[in-house]
Each structure stands twice: as structure tokens, then as C-alpha cells.
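FIELD: query
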Amino acid sequence: MTEPKLNDGRDLSHLPPLRDVIATHDLAAKKAFGQHFLLDLNVTRRIVREAGDFNGLNVVEVGPGPGGLTRALVESAADQVLAVERDPRFSVALADVIAASAGRLRLVEADALAVDPVDLVSSPRAVVSNLPYNVGTPLLIGWLKRISEYRFLALMFQKEVADRIVARPRTGAYGRLAVMSQWLADCRIIMDLPARAFTPPPKIDSAVVRLVPRVRPDDDPDFTTMETLVAAAFGQRRKMLRVGLKSLLREPEPLLLSVGIAPTARAEEIDIDGFVALAKAWHAAR
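FIELD: result
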């Protein structure tokens, strides 16, 4: 006699299609919240596959909307999934997923900018999200401050933002976001998505970036020092570095020369190691 299969909350095949859920509950995307829904479950499952190993993880998703990516996360090997949603309309859309998840999915109605995933779920943790376009960058900067607390982040951005995260020195996209992200994590684009994949389609394409924390040496600069220096360096990116750093130092040239950087160099020419050396020297000189 075959024993009945235990319900582990990963079989969601009986749930209604997402388009039916949206139509039933009149869940039109709100432009003010930067909402663009990803409804193709083949695509959301691929994002989860490409993101990494979920076995034993507690995963936070920001902006689940009607639950396309949420369903793929619940189907994964993750122990727990916690969805953070600002728009209260989606609690009814996610109710069926929560009921089917055998206690593995929880919903927190909150502004993601006002909560910290580290405080919401225990370790080992990850964040996997189709981020609302209007808050993606500030969310990432906030999470980078505690990046060592995560196994990985797999985040969907507008393509131009994703390109800025992984940009290399001496390119037009290289700037503050690239330096801060690549200083703290190994960053790579794992998937591109055309605008037509979304409902409603945005004006530009999107991409998923995977960020894995880097092991940092004990003498690394602190986050605030590095962020302040990098922001000043790129504050006037068309000018020489010595001009941008005058907001921090009356005479930047000696500091630049002390770490082997020409005062006539521009910020986009300096690699991550160069900025780290400069931040350490600036911290020591204060």
C-alpha cells in the first residue's frame, strides 16, 4: 500500500492562474508604487533556479504583488519565505498561497524601506525580489550595509541599474553603485528580461543581479567612510578626482599621491582596490 505523500507546502499546482487572481480581485498595477507584475511562472521558476541553493534558507521577498515570484520561492527548497508588501490590496491575492504553503509563507504589510530583512528572518537568509523600480537602489544600499548577514541577494532591477551595479572601471556606467556593490559582494547579472515579460510592460528591460558577500580583511574601511569618500569622488565625475575630493579635504593631492593615484585621474578610472586604499588613508588622516 502506498503511503500518502505528506504536504510540505511546495505543491501549488491547484492554485488559480495569476491573471485570474488579478482579474478576480481587480488588482491593477499602481504606477505610484513602481509595480510591474511578472506572471509567467516558467520565468519566475527560472529566476529561483539561477539565484542559487535555497536548501535550508529563510528568504525575504520585497514587493510580491499578486505572487508570481512568491509561488516559485514557496516551491523551492527554502525553509521559510517572508513577503514584505506595502500595498494592502495584495493580502487577499496571497491568501491562497499562504494557505497552501503549510506555514512556510508569511506576509508582512510594511514599507520595505522601513524594515530590515535581518530583523525579519533568522540566518541563513537571502533576499530574492522583483524590486519596485522607484526604490530598488536605496533598498540595495541599505542591504549592503549588512551584506555579510546574507547567503546571497538575487534582485531584479531596471537593466540600466543592473548594468551600473556590475560596471567595470573606465566605462560610462561605472560609479558609486558599482564601487559600493563590488567592494562588498561578487556581483553578476544572471538573467535578462525584456519589457514584454511584465504586466504592464515597463518602458525599459530588466535584469536580475546576484550578489554574494565577499570576505573582507580586518583592516577594511567602515561602510560610512567608504560611502562618503566614493560619493564625493563621483560627485563631479567629469572633473579630476582632486576637485571632487575638495568637499572632504582642503588639499587632496598629498592623500592621492600617498596611495599611488594621480591627482589628475578621474573617479571612473579608479578600481575598487584604489578606492579602498584611498578610504583607509583618508580615515587615518582624519
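FIELD: remark
Residues 1-5 have pLDDT under 50 and may be disordered.
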